[in-house]
Design brief:
single chain; mainly alpha; 428 residues
Length: 428
């Protein structure tokens, strides 16, 4: 297989893996709330939901290792703990969210069944597929993604050219930050850390290309996938904003459904709902399988560990997946405020040249990031007024991004100190 073909196959796979069905419901509602400032939230959303995840792929193109290698410069123990937390969050939040999205978009409008029963049936099927691996999901995925993209482009194209009311005023005091934080909910940065390792392993198993070729192909594939994601996300945000003056909506899935009905009619919307349900299902199977594989590896390839993890993952899916999407998004915020800053920093450090990202730089910057992200994490657990004094002391803390400036300062200072030490050694 030539490099160009392999690059496009990888780009398509990356797009499919990043573009979870849950991501469909976030951009339109974000644009709807942003109104006349939609392009600012689009920029923020692109930073955290497109640029950072694609940089994770670039990091893997350079590193060409596993997720443990991605965090190994901090310490091997930290790498294991970080990987465990990432997989635990994945199986506890985005996986159950697929059941909730499926219920609200594809089941509740057409069938009278409770969310708990639907969630139970959904994850029973997920467990069956996880325990009996089959290529049918990857085959379905190859057809699902183009169909969903095609339908979305039609919705976006028709919707943007339709007559609409003047845009509403933005509900966000800082639309850029709002876009960045909403991008956290896609889980795409975490996805980039997980998916990048899968892509690298897939290339290694082929044994066809050398390091330089793999680095070039993975990098190009990431760029192509990123452009595709940006077009879809930007279009959906603009569409949500375009309808902000004519609709009164409080529900993410309801907005996407109304937008699809207005452009495709009820038959088209029903078709989209089925595709979304199938895409949700493949995502859930992928998350539970990946988590079970990881735990299996920790226990010396124990099949029993794989089965137990799969069962527990599906039980957790039933427990959380019965709730509505809005509730799951809200309970995810503290976890995301904890893990996302560390993930972003690890991604950026892995992309940088090694001379600027030594093990000491990794250790200090990750520690400082963790330390200064604690107020952001606590802000969603304890009353906000108790943190006002602390937030006033930390730049950007009121925007839930108090870790950014301290992390940058730590990065610069450590590199300056290391630079002076290098000069002293040369002088000696």
């Amino acid at each position: 297989m030539n490099q160009s073909r392999q690059t496009f196959i990888t780009a398509f796979a990356l797009f499919s893996l990043f573009f979870g069905a849950g991501n469909l419901i976030l951009p339109p509602f974000l644009g709807y709330n942003a109104g006349d400032n939609w392009w600012w939230v689009a920029l923020g959303f692109a930073i955290s939901a497109v640029v950072i995840p694609i940089l994770a792929i670039y990091g893997y193109a350079k590193l060409q290792g596993t997720m443990l290698d991605f965090a190994n410069k901090v310490s091997p123990i930290f790498a294991i703990i970080y990987a465990i937390i990432v997989y635990a969050i994945s199986v506890a939040l985005p996986s159950p969210r697929t059941a909730s999205v499926t219920y609200e978009m594809a089941i509740e409008p057409y069938f009278e069944i409770s969310s708990i029963w639907m969630s139970t049936i959904y994850f029973v099927f997920v467990l069956v597929f996880v325990l009996n691996r089959t290529r049918i999901l990857s085959i379905i995925g190859k057809f699902l993604t183009p169909l969903i993209i095609g339908i979305l482009l039609v919705i976006i194209g028709i919707g943007l050219f339709a007559e609409t009311e003047p845009l509403r005023r933005s509900v966000f005091s800082n639309p850029l930050t709002a876009g960045i934080l909403e991008g956290y909910q896609t889980f795409d940065a975490i996805g980039g850390v997980v998916v990048g390792g899968v892509i690298v392993i897939s290339y290694a198993l082929q044994g066809t290309f050398d390091y330089a070729a793999k680095k070039k192909m993975i990098g190009k594939a990431g760029l192509i996938a990123g452009i595709g994601l940006f077009i879809i996300y930007g279009g959906l945000i603009a569409l949500g904003a375009a309808n902000s003056g004519s609709l009164e909506i409080e529900n993410r899935t309801e907005l996407l459904t109304i937008l699809s009905i207005n452009t495709l009619g009820k038959i088209g919307t029903a078709f989209l709902s089925v595709l979304v349900a199938l895409a949700c299902f493949t995502t859930a199977v992928g998350i539970v399988t990946g988590t079970s594989d990881f735990v299996k590896g920790l226990f010396k390839n124990s099949q029993k560990a794989y089965i137990i993890t799969a069962v527990l993952g599906c039980i957790l899916g039933v427990a959380v997946g019965q709730f509505d999407v809005h509730y799951i998004i809200n309970i995810a915020l503290p976890a995301l405020m904890f893990i996302y800053p560390i993930t972003i920093v690890l991604i950026l450090l892995n992309v940088l040249p090694n001379r600027f990202a030594t093990p000491l730089v990794f250790k200090v910057v990750v520690f400082i990031t963790f330390l200064f992200s604690i107020p952001d994490f606590l802000g969603f657990i304890i009353p906000e007024e108790k943190l006002v004094g602390l937030q006033n002391m930390i730049p950007l803390a009121s925007e839930n991004m108090g870790w950014v400036i301290p992390a940058v300062i730590a990065f610069v200072l450590v590199n300056i100190i290391l630079g002076f030490k290098t000069k002293d050694k040369i002088a000696e």
